[in-house]
Specification:
By secondary structure, the chain is an alpha/beta fold. The chain is built from eight helices and three strands, in the order ααβαβαααβαα. It has one domain. A three-stranded parallel beta sheet has the order 1-2-3, with helices on both faces. The longest helix has 17 residues, at 124-140. It is globular. InterPro entries: CFAP46 (IPR039586).
Amino acid sequence: KKILEKYRDLFTQQWEGVIGSMCVPSQAEWEQLLTNCSAFLFYGMERFMSHVLLNWLVAMNIPKCRLVILLDLVRSQQSYQRITNSDIHKSCLHIALERPTETAVLLSLTGVGSVIATQWYTTLQENAERLEALFENLLSFGKTTGQTVHILQR
């Protein structure tokens, strides 16, 4: 929340979404957020694709969304239990499609222009630092996504 407040004036006036533990978005809400945005930020626990239905995502057409930032792959005891219970009902192939590279490919196939995503499990603090660097470079300094990713890799 602190980071969003810090960069609030640099956001478009049409900023909308779900923050914190307000509620768990329904599939319809995920669809609305993704199809009506030019940029989408997911900052959350476990794999982004564990929150949306795979069949639903691959059927989407979201060419207006030019950038998806996935700051996911954070694990807690509670999130691990949730994902374990969820994965029991999925095939190995389905779980494989939820990995970072496969998620980026699926999002690209739906029309997303660029995807910035974590590749391995991390902490909330590390993702907060990444979000700060992303916003600073993209919004304050006006750097391109490529330049910003290059800075994050260092």
